[in-house]
Specification:
Oligomer: single chain
Shape: elongated
Radius of gyration: 13 Å
Strand content: under 5%
Number of domains: 1
């Protein structure tokens, strides 16, 4: 029971992080909400897709 609660808290924190990260990178509120919903319903696949499309400037040469 306790372990499921910990995983749930991590899941919610991941959703909030992705939403804030999308807003911080200047994406539209609609895009950030789509990211939030995608991560809420498809946590692993949604995270992989978001990390691929998030357009991280630090990875550019």
């Amino acid at each position: 029971m306790f372990l499921s609660f910990i995983f749930f808290v991590i899941h919610i924190a991941l959703c909030v992080w992705a939403y804030r990260d999308a807003r911080r990178k200047g994406k539209s509120p609609e895009f950030a909400i789509i990211v939030l919903i995608a991560l809420f319903f498809f946590p692993i696949l949604g995270l992989i897709v978001y990390l691929l499309i998030r357009n991280d400037d630090s990875l550019r040469l």
